[in-house]
UniProtKB/TrEMBL annotation, chain A:
InterPro entries xrefs: MRP-S31
Protein known as: Small ribosomal subunit protein mS31
Keywords, in A-Z order: Mitochondrion, Ribonucleoprotein, Ribosomal protein, Transit peptide
Membership in a protein family: Belongs to the mitochondrion-specific ribosomal protein mS31 family.
TrEMBL record, chain B:
InterPro entries named in the record: PPR_rpt, PTCD3, Rib_mS39_PPR, TPR-like_helical_dom_sf
Similarity comment: family membership: Belongs to the mitochondrion-specific ribosomal protein mS39 family.
Residue stretches of biased makeup (Acidic residues): 211-223
Entry's Gene Ontology cellular component terms: mitochondrion; ribonucleoprotein complex; ribosome
Gene3D superfamilies named among the record's database cross-references: Tetratricopeptide repeat domain (1.25.40.10)
Organism, scientific name: Amphiprion percula (Orange clownfish)
Name this protein carries in UniProt: Small ribosomal subunit protein mS39
Classification lineage: Eukaryota, Metazoa, Chordata, Craniata, Vertebrata
Source organism superkingdom: Eukaryota
The PPR repeat ranges on this chain: 262-296, 337-373
GO biological process: mitochondrial translation; regulation of translation
Region (Disordered): 211-232
Entry keywords, A to Z: Mitochondrion, Repeat, Ribonucleoprotein, Ribosomal protein, RNA-binding, rRNA-binding, Transit peptide, Translation regulation
Keyword Transcription regulation set for record: no
Length: 381, 677
C-alpha cells in the first residue's frame, strides 16, 4: 500500500506539471478532481472501510501536491502555451499506451488491486505511466534510496550494486513486457491508422496514380524527400543566385517621347489579347461606352454637360448683371425683367447663351416700344 | 438626394442671398461653390443662415480650410459597379448569342461559325460605310458620336508635302507614303527627322507592304482590323502569314539615303528585321550602329535577345550571346524592362540543359531589379521546368510556388504572352495528375477579372479541356458532374476525348445509370458524327445487367442512337453497335424493336453473334412466341451461322410448335448437322 501511495504522489507531481500547470484545461482538472473525490465512495462500496482511510489520505496528498505545483511555478503565457502543447502531445501517446500499462500493472501488482474500480485504475495507470516516462533511466532518487538502504547493511558496496542490479532488472522486464504489448494486434492497427491519416493527402495523389497505365509520366514522388526538395527549391526559387549583370539603380528612365507605332501596336496587341467577349449586357454597355457609342452613365452631377462644361453655375443663376444695360433702373419694366431673370435662373434646360439671348430680346423689344411706354409713364430711366 | 419638394426653396435661397454674397462669389467662386455644396448636403439646417455662416467663416479662416480634391470617376464606373453584381449563369449560352435563340451555338463548331459570322457582318457594314462615305452624311446622334460616322480611309491631301506624307503614314498607306517621300526628296524638300522616324517605323512594321488591306473587302484599315480581332478572337490565317524581309527594301533604301542616322532609325530597322525574321541582318545592323558610336535603346536589345537563339546553334553559344547582350545593355546604361527578361526566358526555352539554372538566375535578377515577373515569365519558367527530366525541381514544385505567390492577385496583361500561362499551368497539373494544384490554378482564374487572361476561345477551350480532363481522371463522379454542369456548355464545349473521359469517370464510379442523359448532351454538342462515341456508350450500357427501370431508359437511349444512325449516312453500323442496341432492346423486353434490329444486320451485311441469338431465343421463350423463334432460326440459317443446329434443337425442345414449324426446324437442324458445307 505504501508503494501505491508513493507512486501516486510521485505521479501526481509529474502529471500535474503536464496537465495542471497549463491552466488551460480546467475541465480536465475538474474531471481529475471529481475522480479523486468520488473514489472514497466507490471504494467503500467495494472494499469496506479499511481502504477508505488510506485513499482519503492519498487524495489529500495529491491535492496538496497539485496546488503546490500550481502556485510555486509561475510561468509566462508563452511557456504555458508550450506546456499545453506538450501536454496534449503526451496525452495522445498516453492514451495509446494506457491499455498495456493497465495490463502490466495487473501483472506486477498484488491481487488486491484487481478489485479496484475501473475508473480509479485508469487514473492510477495514467499516473504510473507518467512515472515510467519520467524515469527512463533509473531514477536518481531511487538510486539514492538504494544506496541509503545499502548503507545500513554490512558490505555496503556490494549490497548497493545488488540492489541497483535488481532495480535495473525489474526495469528491463517492464520494458520488455511493454514492448511485447505493443506488438499486439490492436496496437498495430492503431498505429496504422495514425500513419494513414498523416500521409493520406500525398498517398492519394501520388501512390494511387502510380498504378495507372495511361502512359503519362510520374517522375515525381511526393514523399518526405519530395517535400524536402520542395523546401530547397523554395529557397533557390525565391532567393537564388542571380545573373549579376545589372545593378539595381533607382534612377528613372529618360522621359519617354511620343508613342511610336510600335508602342501603339503593342498596346493594341495587349488589349486584343485580354479583351473577352462581353459576358452580360452591362459589360457590353461598358464596351460601347469605351467606343463612344453610348451615352455615358452619370458618374457625377455634371454628366451631359458637353457644351456647358466650361460654364460655371453662377453664370446660370445670377443673371441680374445683364439688366445693367439697356433697361430702366426702376419701374414696371424693371420689375418685369427681374421676374424674367428669376425665372431664367431656375431653368436648367437653357444654355447661358440662350438665356442671354432671351434677355436681349426683351431689351430690343422694350427699346423699340420705348415711345409707347414713355407715354404711359411705364418706362423710367 | 434632392427631393422635388425641396428644390424650389433651395433655388430661391440660392438666388436671394446672391446679392449679399455676390462679391465673394466673384472673387472666390470655386471655393464658395464647395461650401454651398457642403451646405446643401445638410439642407435641414436652413439654407439662408447656413450660407451666411459660411460667408462669415469664409472671412475668418479662409486659409485654414483645405478644399478636398475633386474625385474623378471613370466614365464606366457606374457600369462596372453594376456589372460586378451580375453572376454567370451556367445554364445560359454566351451573352453574344442571346439576341437570337435560334442561333444559340450548341457545339464548338457552331460557336466558331456564329461568332465569326457576327463579326464579319460587323466588318462588312463598317467597310461599306467607310468606303461609301457619301451615303452616310446624316448625323442622327445628338451629341455627335464620331465612331458611328464613316472614317477617312483614303488620303485627302493630294499635293506633295510633308503634311501629306504624315497623313499617309497615319493611315498606314505604306506604298503611298514611300512614293510621297521619294517625291519630296526628289523635289529637294527636307523631311523632318520625326516624320522620317515614323515613316521608317511604318515601313519596318509592315515589312514594306500595305497592311493586308488590298487583299479583300474584309479589312480596310488597322482600326477595324483590330476590332475584328478583338471581338472574333479567332486565329486567322493572315495572322500567321509572315512576310519575309527583303534585301534592300524601301526601309533599307531610305535608311541608307539618310544624311544622318540616330538610334531611333536603327531601332525601327532592327525591330522590323527581327519581327520579319531577318535575324542575322538585325545583328549586322546592330554592329553597324555600334561602329557609328551610337547607343542602343531597350527595344533594340529586347528584339535582339529574342532573336539570339536563331543565330546560334549550340546551347551555350546562345546563352553566351544573350549574356553578352545583357552586359552591353548594362554598359550602355540602359535599364531592362519586363519584356527584356521575358525575352531572355523565352530564349532560354531553347537552350536545353542550360535553361533550368539560368532561368532561376534570371528570375532572381528580375526580383533584384524590382521588376515583378508577369504571367508570361512564369509560363516560360513552367515550360522550361516541366519538360525537363526527373532530377531536381520540376514543374509541379515551381507551379506550387507560383500559385502560392500569385494567390488572390488581380492580373493585368503586360506581355501578349501572358495569356498562355493558364493553359500551360493546367497542363502541368494534368500531366502530374495533381488535382489540388489544379483547383488552385482554377481559383486563380476565377478570381476577379483574371478570366480575361485566358486568351482567345481556342486557348480557353484548351484550358477548360485540360481542367475537365483532370477532374474526370481524379475527382469523384459527383464533383465531376457538378463541374460538368458549371462548365458545359456555357464555358466549354467538350471534344470527343473530353466526353470519353467523362464516360470513363462514370464507369469508374459505377454511375452508368446517367448514360442516357449524357447521350442527350452528346447529341446536343454535335458529337454524334463520331461513331466511336456511340459505340463506347453502347458498350458501356450493354456490359452489365441493371435494374428494369435503368434497362428501360437504356433501351430508349439505344433507340435514340439508332435514329441518329438512321439519319446520318456518315455513320455506319458496326457489328458490335448493332448487337449492343439489339441486346439493350431485348433486356428491356422490346422484342418488336429488337426484331427490327435483327433485320438491320442483314441489310448492313453484318452478322449477329451466337450470344445475341441465344438470348433472343430465350426472350421468345418467355414471350411464348414460337413463330418468332422459328423465324429466328431461319434467319440464323440464312447467315450460315454454325450455331443454327443448336438453336433449332433448343427451339424444338422448348416451344410448342405446329407440325409445319417442326418440319422446318428439323430440316434446319439436319442441314446444320452436316458441317460439310
Amino acid at each position: 500500500m505504501y508503494r501505491f501511495l508513493s507512486r501516486t504522489v510521485c505521479a501526481a507531481r509529474s502529471s500535474s506539471v503536464i496537465v495542471y500547470e497549463s491552466c488551460a484545461l480546467p475541465t480536465k482538472c475538474e474531471k481529475a478532481m471529481a475522480n479523486q473525490t468520488e473514489k472514497p465512495v466507490v471504494l467503500m462500496a467495494e472494499d469496506g472501510s479499511t481502504t477508505q482511510q488510506q485513499t482519503d489520505v492519498k487524495t489529500e496528498q495529491v491535492v496538496a501536491k497539485q496546488t503546490q505545483v500550481n502556485t510555486d511555478v509561475p510561468k509566462s503565457g508563452k511557456e504555458s502555451l508550450l506546456d499545453l502543447l506538450g501536454a496534449m502531445k503526451v496525452e495522445v501517446t498516453n492514451k495509446r499506451r494506457l491499455k498495456n500499462l493497465k495490463v502490466k500493472q495487473n501483472f506486477e501488482s498484488p491481487p488486491e488491486y484487481k478489485s479496484k474500480p475501473a475508473a480509479m485504475e485508469s487514473t492510477i495507470s495514467m499516473f504510473q505511466k507518467a512515472t515510467e516516462e519520467a524515469s527512463e533511466s533509473l531514477d536518481p532518487t531511487l538510486v539514492a534510496a538504494a544506496s541509503a538502504a545499502a548503507a545500513t547493511l554490512p558490505n555496503s558496496n556490494q549490497a548497493e550494486s545488488e540492489l541497483l542490479r535488481q532495480l535495473r532488472q525489474r526495469k528491463a522486464i517492464t520494458e520488455a513486457q511493454k514492448k511485447g504489448d505493443i506488438s499486439n494486434l490492436g496496437e498495430i492497427i492503431a498505429e496504422m491508422k495514425v500513419g494513414k491519416k498523416q500521409t493520406r493527402q500525398n498517398a492519394w495523389a501520388a501512390n494511387q496514380i502510380r498504378f495507372d497505365d495511361d502512359g503519362r509520366g510520374y517522375t515525381h514522388d511526393r514523399g518526405i524527400t519530395a517535400e524536402l526538395v520542395g523546401v530547397r527549391e523554395r529557397r533557390s526559387f525565391l532567393l537564388g543566385k542571380r545573373l549579376n549583370i545589372f545593378s539595381p539603380s533607382t534612377e528613372e528612365d529618360a522621359v519617354e517621347s511620343t508613342p511610336t507605332l510600335w508602342d501603339v501596336e503593342f498596346a493594341n496587341n495587349l488589349s486584343q489579347v485580354t479583351d473577352q467577349i462581353p459576358r452580360n449586357g452591362l459589360e457590353e454597355m461598358i464596351q460601347w461606352t469605351k467606343e463612344g457609342k453610348m451615352w455615358q452613365y452619370p458618374v457625377d452631377n455634371e454628366a451631359g454637360l458637353e457644351e456647358e462644361a466650361s460654364v460655371p453655375f453662377h453664370e446660370h443663376v445670377f443673371l441680374e448683371k445683364h439688366l445693367e444695360e439697356g433697361f430702366p433702373r426702376q419701374g414696371p419694366v424693371r420689375h418685369f425683367m427681374e421676374l424674367v431673370v428669376v425665372g431664367l435662373s431656375k431653368n436648367p434646360y437653357l444654355t447661358v447663351q440662350q438665356k442671354k439671348e432671351h434677355i436681349s430680346w426683351f431689351r430690343d423689344y422694350f427699346h423699340q416700344n420705348e415711345e409707347i411706354l414713355k407715354n404711359d409713364d411705364a418706362y423710367l430711366s | 438626394m434632392v427631393s422635388p419638394t425641396q428644390k424650389p426653396s433651395v433655388c430661391t435661397n440660392m438666388a436671394a442671398p446672391g446679392r449679399h454674397v455676390g462679391h465673394y462669389m466673384k472673387r472666390n467662386g470655386r471655393f464658395l461653390l464647395c461650401n454651398i455644396e457642403q451646405v446643401l448636403g445638410h439642407r435641414s439646417f436652413g439654407c439662408t443662415t447656413a450660407v451666411r455662416q459660411v460667408a462669415e467663416a469664409n472671412k475668418e479662416s479662409a486659409e485654414s480650410i483645405v478644399i478636398p480634391r475633386k474625385k474623378t470617376w471613370s466614365k464606366e464606373a457606374v457600369l462596372e459597379a453594376l456589372a460586378s453584381t451580375v453572376g454567370r449563369d451556367p445554364t445560359a449560352y454566351s451573352y453574344q448569342f442571346q439576341d437570337d435563340p435560334y442561333l444559340s451555338p450548341r457545339s464548338a463548331v457552331e460557336f466558331k461559325l456564329y461568332s465569326l459570322s457576327q463579326e464579319s457582318g460587323r466588318s462588312a457594314a463598317k467597310y461599306f460605310i467607310n468606303s461609301n462615305p457619301k451615303f452616310f452624311t446624316k448625323d442622327f446622334a445628338e451629341p455627335h458620336i464620331p465612331c458611328l460616322m464613316p472614317e477617312t480611309v483614303s488620303p485627302c491631301l493630294e499635293e506633295v508635302s510633308e503634311e501629306a506624307l504624315k497623313e499617309r503614314i497615319n493611315l498606314r498607306k505604306v506604298t503611298a507614303a514611300v512614293d510621297m517621300y521619294d517625291q519630296l526628296v526628289q523635289a529637294g524638300t527636307a523631311v523632318s527627322m520625326e516624320t522620317t522616324h515614323s515613316l521608317l517605323d511604318v515601313i519596318s512594321f509592315y515589312c514594306d507592304r500595305d497592311p493586308a488591306e488590298e487583299e479583300g473587302p474584309q479589312t480596310e484599315d488597322t482600326e477595324s482590323k483590330d476590332q475584328k480581332k478583338r471581338k472574333g478572337n479567332f486565329r486567322r490565317a493572315s495572322d500567321f502569314l509572315k512576310f519575309s524581309w527583303k534585301e534592300n527594301n524601301n526601309a533599307e533604301r531610305i535608311f541608307n539615303l539618310l544624311p544622318e542616322r540616330d538610334t531611333r532609325c536603327y531601332s525601327a530597322l532592327i525591330r522590323g528585321m527581327v519581327k520579319h525574321e531577318a535575324y542575322a541582318k538585325a545583328f549586322n545592323m546592330y554592329t553597324d550602329m555600334l561602329n557609328n558610336r551610337l547607343t542602343a535603346d531597350v527595344h533594340i536589345f529586347n528584339a535582339l535577345i529574342s532573336a539570339a537563339p536563331e543565330v546560334r546553334d549550340k546551347y551555350h553559344e546562345k546563352w553566351d550571346l544573350i549574356t553578352e547582350l545583357l552586359k552591353q545593355m548594362n554598359e550602355q546604361k540602359i535599364r531592362p524592362n519586363l519584356l527584356t527578361f521575358n525575352s531572355v526566358l523565352k530564349a532560354l526555352r531553347r537552350c536545353g540543359f542550360l535553361a533550368k539554372t539560368q532561368a532561376l538566375h534570371t528570375l532572381s535578377e528580375m526580383k533584384a531589379l524590382g521588376i515583378a515577373p508577369s504571367l508570361a515569365s512564369y509560363e516560360h519558367m513552367l515550360a522550361i521546368f516541366h519538360r525537363s527530366g526527373s532530377s531536381g525541381p520540376n514543374g509541379t514544385d515551381l507551379l506550387q510556388e507560383v500559385v502560392a505567390e500569385l494567390a488572390e492577385t488581380n492580373f493585368t496583361c503586360q506581355d501578349p504572352h501572358d495569356v498562355m500561362f493558364f493553359s500551360c499551368a493546367i497542363r502541368v497539373c494534368l500531366d502530374n495528375k495533381d488535382l489540388e494544384l489544379g483547383y488552385k490554378v482554377h481559383s486563380l482564374v476565377e478570381f476577379g477579372e483574371n478570366y480575361r487572361l485566358l486568351g482567345d476561345p481556342f486557348n480557353q477551350s484548351v484550358y477548360y479541356g485540360r481542367f475537365f480532363n483532370l477532374l474526370c481522371m481524379m475527382e469523384h463522379i459527383d464533383e465531376v458532374l457538378k463541374w460538368y454542369k458549371r462548365l458545359i456548355p456555357s464555358l466549354y464545349y467538350p471534344n470527343p476525348q473530353g466526353m470519353k473521359d467523362l464516360l470513363q469517370a462514370l464507369d469508374t464510379d459505377s454511375r452508368l445509370d446517367l448514360l442516357p442523359s449524357i447521350w442527350k448532351d452528346i447529341k446536343s454538342l454535335g458529337l454524334t458524327n463520331r461513331p466511336d462515341m456511340a459505340e463506347e456508350l453502347l458498350s458501356l450500357m450493354t456490359r452489365d445487367n441493371h435494374s428494369p427501370e435503368i434497362q428501360e431508359s437504356f433501351a430508349a437511349c439505344a433507340l435514340d442512337i439508332k435514329s441518329v444512325f438512321d439519319l446520318k449516312f456518315s455513320l455506319e453500323w458496326t457489328n458490335s453497335s448493332l448487337s449492343h442496341v439489339t441486346m439493350l432492346l431485348l433486356r428491356a423486353n422490346k422484342t418488336e424493336k429488337a426484331w427490327e434490329m435483327l433485320h438491320l444486320f442483314k441489310s448492313n451485311n453484318r452478322v449477329p453473334s451466337d450470344d445475341l441469338l441465344n438470348s433472343f431465343l430465350s426472350v421468345c421463350r418467355t414471350d411464348d412466341a414460337p413463330q418468332k423463334a422459328v423465324e429466328l432460326v431461319q434467319m440464323s440459317a440464312a447467315f450460315c451461322l454454325p450455331t443454327t443446329p443448336q438453336l433449332a434443337k433448343r427451339t424444338l425442345t422448348d416451344f410448342n410448335l405446329t407440325e409445319e414449324q417442326r418440319a422446318i426446324l428439323s430440316e434446319l437442324e439436319a442441314a446444320g448437322g452436316e458441317p460439310s458445307d
